[in-house]
Write a structure and sequence with these properties.
about 100 residues; mainly alpha; 6 helices; 2 strands; about 5% strand; globular
């Protein structure tokens, strides 16, 4: 008889995270005034991550940014900011609709 296959444990639900409240708290304590609600650079800085153009291009590529936006850093940044917030919302973050559109 073949050995029984192990049973995967059911994923544990986590409570929804109030992303705006968390980021607003971080922003209040940050030395710089960061506009994380509209700027991917400021959002990355707020989270203590590298916000260089090279890193943003790499992240945009990983997330599937359309080629026509990759050639214009402003369009790429706007696309990436929206995509990061959508990913947060899809993974248990409570992100207001006005930040997702």
């Amino acid at each position: 008889a073949a050995p029984a296959s192990p049973v995967a444990a059911a994923p544990v639900a986590i409570s929804e995270v109030d992303v705006v409240a968390k980021l607003t708290t971080l922003a209040a304590a940050h030395a710089e005034k960061l506009n994380w609600k509209t700027s991917i650079v400021d959002l990355l800085k707020l989270l203590g991550l590298d916000s260089s153009l090279a890193v943003r291009k790499e992240l945009a590529t990983e997330q599937g940014c359309p080629a026509e936006k990759m050639g214009d850093s402003a369009q790429m940044n706007m696309w990436l900011h929206k995509t990061v917030l959508q990913k947060l919302a899809a993974n248990g973050g409570n992100v207001p609709a006005d930040l997702l559109n």
